[in-house]
Specification:
Shape: elongated
Mean pLDDT: 94
Number of strands: 0
CATH superfamily: Phosphate transport system protein phou homolog 2, domain 2
Strand content: under 5%
Order of helices and strands: HHHHHHH
CATH topology: Methane Monooxygenase Hydroxylase, Chain G, domain 1
Largest sheet: none
CATH class: Mainly Alpha
Low-confidence stretches: none
Distance between the termini: 30 Å
Number of domains: 1
Oligomer: single chain
Radius of gyration: 19 Å
CATH architecture: Up-down Bundle
Length: about 220
Protein backbone atom coordinates (compact mmCIF):
# COMPACT_ATOMS: atom_id res chain seq x y z
CA UNK A 1 0.00 0.00 0.00
CA UNK A 2 1.43 3.39 -0.98
CA UNK A 3 1.77 6.20 1.53
CA UNK A 4 -0.80 8.25 -0.35
CA UNK A 5 -3.31 5.39 -0.25
CA UNK A 6 -2.68 4.88 3.46
CA UNK A 7 -3.26 8.56 4.19
CA UNK A 8 -6.52 8.38 2.25
CA UNK A 9 -7.62 5.50 4.49
CA UNK A 10 -6.72 7.47 7.61
CA UNK A 11 -8.73 10.44 6.34
CA UNK A 12 -11.72 8.19 5.57
CA UNK A 13 -11.63 6.66 9.06
CA UNK A 14 -11.48 10.09 10.62
CA UNK A 15 -14.34 11.37 8.46
CA UNK A 16 -16.60 8.45 9.34
CA UNK A 17 -15.76 8.71 13.02
CA UNK A 18 -16.60 12.41 13.09
CA UNK A 19 -19.87 11.76 11.26
CA UNK A 20 -20.75 9.12 13.83
CA UNK A 21 -19.88 11.59 16.57
CA UNK A 22 -22.09 14.29 15.09
CA UNK A 23 -25.03 11.89 14.95
CA UNK A 24 -24.50 10.82 18.56
CA UNK A 25 -24.34 14.45 19.63
CA UNK A 26 -27.58 15.18 17.77
CA UNK A 27 -29.35 12.20 19.33
CA UNK A 28 -28.40 13.21 22.85
CA UNK A 29 -29.87 16.65 22.26
CA UNK A 30 -33.04 15.17 20.78
CA UNK A 31 -33.41 12.68 23.62
CA UNK A 32 -33.37 15.43 26.23
CA UNK A 33 -35.76 17.47 24.09
CA UNK A 34 -38.13 14.49 23.95
CA UNK A 35 -37.94 14.27 27.74
CA UNK A 36 -38.55 17.98 28.20
CA UNK A 37 -41.43 18.15 25.70
CA UNK A 38 -42.78 14.67 26.51
CA UNK A 39 -42.64 14.02 22.77
CA UNK A 40 -43.36 10.35 22.12
CA UNK A 41 -42.56 10.39 18.39
CA UNK A 42 -39.24 12.15 18.89
CA UNK A 43 -38.24 9.66 21.58
CA UNK A 44 -39.05 6.76 19.26
CA UNK A 45 -36.97 8.37 16.50
CA UNK A 46 -33.96 8.57 18.82
CA UNK A 47 -34.33 4.95 19.87
CA UNK A 48 -34.50 3.76 16.26
CA UNK A 49 -31.49 5.88 15.23
CA UNK A 50 -29.21 4.29 17.83
CA UNK A 51 -29.05 1.19 15.63
CA UNK A 52 -27.37 3.29 12.93
CA UNK A 53 -24.64 4.27 15.38
CA UNK A 54 -24.15 0.66 16.45
CA UNK A 55 -23.74 -0.45 12.83
CA UNK A 56 -21.29 2.33 12.03
CA UNK A 57 -19.26 1.52 15.13
CA UNK A 58 -18.80 -2.06 13.94
CA UNK A 59 -17.84 -0.87 10.44
CA UNK A 60 -15.31 1.66 11.74
CA UNK A 61 -13.79 -0.86 14.14
CA UNK A 62 -13.35 -3.39 11.32
CA UNK A 63 -11.80 -0.77 9.03
CA UNK A 64 -9.32 0.33 11.70
CA UNK A 65 -8.28 -3.23 12.56
CA UNK A 66 -7.93 -4.13 8.88
CA UNK A 67 -5.78 -1.05 8.27
CA UNK A 68 -3.53 -1.91 11.22
CA UNK A 69 -3.17 -5.53 10.06
CA UNK A 70 -2.40 -4.67 6.43
CA UNK A 71 -0.22 -1.60 6.91
CA UNK A 72 1.51 -2.37 10.25
CA UNK A 73 1.76 1.37 11.05
CA UNK A 74 4.24 2.71 13.58
CA UNK A 75 4.71 5.82 15.71
CA UNK A 76 2.27 8.63 14.96
CA UNK A 77 0.15 6.68 12.48
CA UNK A 78 -0.42 3.84 14.92
CA UNK A 79 -1.19 6.30 17.69
CA UNK A 80 -3.82 7.98 15.49
CA UNK A 81 -5.48 4.66 14.62
CA UNK A 82 -5.57 3.49 18.24
CA UNK A 83 -6.94 6.88 19.29
CA UNK A 84 -9.66 6.60 16.65
CA UNK A 85 -10.52 3.09 17.84
CA UNK A 86 -10.92 4.21 21.45
CA UNK A 87 -12.85 7.31 20.39
CA UNK A 88 -15.25 5.13 18.43
CA UNK A 89 -16.04 3.22 21.61
CA UNK A 90 -16.75 6.45 23.50
CA UNK A 91 -18.95 7.76 20.69
CA UNK A 92 -20.93 4.50 20.54
CA UNK A 93 -21.65 4.87 24.26
CA UNK A 94 -23.06 8.35 23.62
CA UNK A 95 -25.65 6.79 21.36
CA UNK A 96 -26.54 4.30 24.08
CA UNK A 97 -27.12 7.11 26.57
CA UNK A 98 -29.34 8.95 24.09
CA UNK A 99 -31.41 5.80 23.62
CA UNK A 100 -31.72 5.29 27.38
CA UNK A 101 -32.86 8.88 27.95
CA UNK A 102 -35.42 8.54 25.15
CA UNK A 103 -36.75 5.36 26.75
CA UNK A 104 -37.11 7.23 30.05
CA UNK A 105 -39.00 9.97 28.19
CA UNK A 106 -41.43 7.35 26.89
CA UNK A 107 -41.86 5.83 30.33
CA UNK A 108 -43.00 9.14 31.83
CA UNK A 109 -44.63 10.76 28.78
CA UNK A 110 -48.07 10.94 30.39
CA UNK A 111 -46.97 12.08 33.84
CA UNK A 112 -46.69 15.54 35.27
CA UNK A 113 -43.06 16.12 36.17
CA UNK A 114 -42.31 16.40 39.86
CA UNK A 115 -39.84 19.18 39.10
CA UNK A 116 -38.91 21.28 36.07
CA UNK A 117 -36.08 18.84 35.30
CA UNK A 118 -33.88 20.72 37.79
CA UNK A 119 -30.36 21.06 36.32
CA UNK A 120 -30.81 18.55 33.50
CA UNK A 121 -31.24 21.09 30.64
CA UNK A 122 -28.08 22.94 31.73
CA UNK A 123 -26.13 19.69 32.09
CA UNK A 124 -27.25 18.74 28.60
CA UNK A 125 -26.16 22.09 27.17
CA UNK A 126 -22.67 21.84 28.65
CA UNK A 127 -22.21 18.16 27.83
CA UNK A 128 -23.17 18.74 24.19
CA UNK A 129 -20.72 21.63 23.96
CA UNK A 130 -18.04 19.33 25.34
CA UNK A 131 -18.80 16.69 22.72
CA UNK A 132 -18.66 19.29 19.95
CA UNK A 133 -15.36 20.73 21.16
CA UNK A 134 -13.77 17.33 21.71
CA UNK A 135 -14.72 16.15 18.22
CA UNK A 136 -13.47 19.35 16.61
CA UNK A 137 -10.21 19.16 18.53
CA UNK A 138 -9.74 15.58 17.30
CA UNK A 139 -10.51 16.62 13.73
CA UNK A 140 -7.98 19.46 13.82
CA UNK A 141 -5.61 17.75 16.29
CA UNK A 142 -5.70 20.90 18.43
CA UNK A 143 -4.54 20.14 21.97
CA UNK A 144 -5.27 23.65 23.24
CA UNK A 145 -8.87 23.38 22.09
CA UNK A 146 -9.13 19.96 23.72
CA UNK A 147 -8.13 21.45 27.07
CA UNK A 148 -11.19 23.72 27.00
CA UNK A 149 -13.39 20.82 28.08
CA UNK A 150 -11.61 20.29 31.43
CA UNK A 151 -13.35 23.08 33.39
CA UNK A 152 -16.62 22.24 31.64
CA UNK A 153 -16.43 18.70 32.97
CA UNK A 154 -16.00 20.06 36.49
CA UNK A 155 -19.16 22.13 36.03
CA UNK A 156 -21.17 19.12 34.86
CA UNK A 157 -19.93 17.11 37.85
CA UNK A 158 -21.02 19.89 40.19
CA UNK A 159 -24.48 20.08 38.59
CA UNK A 160 -24.85 16.32 38.84
CA UNK A 161 -23.98 16.35 42.54
CA UNK A 162 -26.54 19.09 43.19
CA UNK A 163 -29.20 17.29 41.18
CA UNK A 164 -28.57 14.04 43.02
CA UNK A 165 -28.89 15.74 46.40
CA UNK A 166 -32.08 17.56 45.40
CA UNK A 167 -33.73 14.42 44.09
CA UNK A 168 -32.65 12.39 47.11
CA UNK A 169 -34.30 14.96 49.36
CA UNK A 170 -37.41 14.89 47.20
CA UNK A 171 -37.63 11.09 47.43
CA UNK A 172 -37.42 11.21 51.22
CA UNK A 173 -40.18 13.81 51.39
CA UNK A 174 -42.39 12.40 48.59
CA UNK A 175 -41.85 8.62 48.38
CA UNK A 176 -44.92 8.12 46.17
CA UNK A 177 -43.01 9.70 43.25
CA UNK A 178 -39.91 7.59 43.73
CA UNK A 179 -40.02 6.04 40.23
CA UNK A 180 -39.89 9.35 38.37
CA UNK A 181 -37.28 10.76 40.73
CA UNK A 182 -35.02 7.77 40.14
CA UNK A 183 -35.51 8.15 36.39
CA UNK A 184 -34.42 11.79 36.53
CA UNK A 185 -31.41 10.75 38.59
CA UNK A 186 -30.51 8.31 35.84
CA UNK A 187 -30.87 10.98 33.15
CA UNK A 188 -28.54 13.25 35.12
CA UNK A 189 -26.09 10.38 35.54
CA UNK A 190 -26.16 9.65 31.81
CA UNK A 191 -25.39 13.29 31.01
CA UNK A 192 -22.55 13.25 33.50
CA UNK A 193 -21.19 10.20 31.69
CA UNK A 194 -21.62 11.93 28.31
CA UNK A 195 -19.34 14.65 29.64
CA UNK A 196 -16.84 12.03 30.81
CA UNK A 197 -16.71 10.42 27.37
CA UNK A 198 -16.22 13.83 25.75
CA UNK A 199 -13.36 14.40 28.18
CA UNK A 200 -11.83 11.06 27.16
CA UNK A 201 -11.88 12.08 23.50
CA UNK A 202 -10.35 15.47 24.29
CA UNK A 203 -7.62 13.94 26.42
CA UNK A 204 -6.67 11.53 23.65
CA UNK A 205 -6.22 14.48 21.31
CA UNK A 206 -3.78 15.97 23.81
CA UNK A 207 -1.96 12.64 23.97
CA UNK A 208 -2.00 12.36 20.18
CA UNK A 209 -0.26 15.72 19.79
CA UNK A 210 1.97 15.79 22.85
CA UNK A 211 2.55 12.13 23.70
CA UNK A 212 1.85 12.73 27.39
CA UNK A 213 0.60 9.40 28.78
CA UNK A 214 -1.31 11.07 31.63
CA UNK A 215 -3.96 11.93 29.03
CA UNK A 216 -4.77 8.35 27.97
Amino acid sequence: MTRNKFEQQLAEIKKRLLSMGSLSEELIGLSVQSLKDQDEELAKKVIASDKQIDREYVNIEKKIMRTIAMQAPVAGDLRLLLTALKNATDIERLGDYAKDIAEIALRHKDEEYITKLINIPRMNEIALSMVQISLESFETEDADMARQVHPMDDEVDSLYDRTFRLLTTYILENPKNISQAFSLMLVARHLERVADHALNIANRTIYLKEGDIQYI
